[in-house]
Amino acid sequence: xxxxxxxxxxxxxxxxxxxxxxxxxxxxxxxxxxxxxxxxxxxxxxxxxxxxxxxxxxxxxxxxxxxxxxxxxxxxxxxxxxxxxxxxxxxxxxxxxxxxxxxxxxxxxxxxxxxxxxxxxxxxxxxxxxxxxxxxxxxxxxxxxxxxxxxxxxxxxxxxxxxxxxxxxxxxxxxxxxxxxxxxxxxxxxxxxxxxxxxxxxxxxxxxxxxxxxxxxxxxxxxxxxxxxxxxxxxxxxxxxxxxxxxxxxxxxxxxxxxxxxxxxxxxxxxxxxxxxxxxxxxxxxxxxxxxxxxxxxxxxxxxxxxxxxxxxxxxxxxxxx
Length: 322
Description:
This protein is of the alpha+beta class. It has two domains: 46-206, Beta-Lactamase; 216-317, no CATH class. The protein has helices spanning 5-18, 22-25, 27-38, 54-63, 67-82, 108-113, 124-127, 131-138, 186-211, 246-251, 278-292, 297-304, 308-317, and strands at 87-93, 98-102, 142-145, 158-165, 171-179, 216-219, 232-235, 240-244, 263-264. The strands form two sheets. A five-stranded antiparallel beta sheet has the order 2-1-5-4-3, sandwiched between helices. A four-stranded antiparallel beta sheet has the order 6-7-8-9. The protein starts with a helix and ends in a 5-residue tail after the last helix.
């Protein structure tokens, strides 16, 4: 008599965890090993974690400030794209606790029976390898498809997640799309993956803009291999970089989170007469101001909020001398 899928899965997990080399060769195997060895979890466990009370959830949302409000319309938009196909949209904090979700009315009981309830803990330490927990543990976008989950009770689900980093580079949340459709193929997962990553980056950008509402936000064309985030800098009125997204911090060799020493934006504008990246945007801003003021440098400087002498220095560096 063939073994039940759950039993087969548990056997596979135990064999993989017991292998001396699997974890070094596979990120999935490494996550299974963390789940078993580091967190002491049993893949056969059927326990469903108790959800936090409303007050505790409210406290977690409050600690995230405006971020939760910024995320709302983006969750709605993502759900409008995937909800009719039996998928649910979930937002957790950096601890893996679910703070918000979107489910179709007919799917609510199913998702909640799997433990995807407000206040539930989906960290790797609690549920083993899963979309939310593994995304947070590895700080990268992941797809955990059905039997890639650690717990046998979760192998009916497909979970696709992307991390969201805060305005100071800190890990803030995970955005998840989960589904238990048996016909959800890897090709469909790839399409959903792209939507989840795009939505996470949009939330990240909007949150960064809100955190530096009085600063100039500059997009860079600098990139880091394998980096999924947007490279943005916040520049103050003195042309000093005072904020950077997680991707920008990696691109320019800054500390990945927390405070960093402010530096002149010109330090990353490139060399004289090389108008790429930030310089391209700065040159365009100066040209627009001069054009609006019909070449009057004094008026253009006033419009840009800098002195006439400062504008002349920028014009010289950008090759726009009159």
